[in-house]
Write a structure and sequence with these properties.
single chain; 183 residues; alpha/beta; Rossmann fold; six-stranded parallel sheet; two-stranded antiparallel ribbon; 5 helices; hydrolase
Amino acid sequence: MQKRALIVIDIQNDYFPGGAWELHDMDVAVKNAAAILEATRHEQGLVIHIRHEFLNENPPFFAPGSEGAEIHHNVKPLGDEVVITKNAVNSFQDTNLKNVLDSNGITDVTMIGAMSHMCIDAAARAASDFGFSVTVVEDACASRDLEFGDKVVNANDVHAAYMSALSFAYANVVKTTEYLASE
């Protein structure tokens, strides 16, 4: 029997306008994420919030104890929802995420959040490698421009490239409307 969990990854204040590491279209992503979160809560599904904190001195963003490291108010956890703090890109690395999923009999995970090219990518690949069926709701995720050598890759292209790669072998990649229609 299939049992699904929603994993909300790094939707934290520093990624929003005025934050220390602003992402492209984060306001659109959080609107979609909030709708998915509401639907999951309505169905009484398991919700797991992941939040990132850097442990190194003078982090570029997500400094422990800072307002920027707090989960954004539009997707704030409810009292009974699991919140896992991670210190690495991959949500499974050095956390109890897999144990939480396994102890709840989860077979399928849905991932939303940020950044498409880092934490979403790493968590989706790891979840697939652990044997979970993975769905990524692409318009509830966000990215940013990247630089490689002398080339700037715009955020839309970064996001599309990572969603394309995930959809090839690691995840079912859908839009919010499609995901909500299947609930």
